[in-house]
Amino acid sequence: MTTSTTPEDLLGQPLSPAEQELLGAYETLKQLASRDDLPPCANSNIRKALAALWQATNDLNLQYEQLYDLGV
């Protein structure tokens, strides 16, 4: 049995390098949004950017989740 290490979208299609980068940026913003040591202006803008990137990654079937727990 062979296990694929190529990242895939929710439909099982391999991710392009651009999609991998987009998903990486989304994950980085999620990590930043979960922090509580950033100034209010940074928190607000991180959440705004995360909401926009969430839409792109959701439309591309790269992830399926809600961000309510992070205040987005």
Automatic annotation (TrEMBL):
Superkingdom to which the source organism belongs: Bacteria
Organism: Ktedonobacter robiniae
Name listed for the protein in its UniProt record: Uncharacterized protein
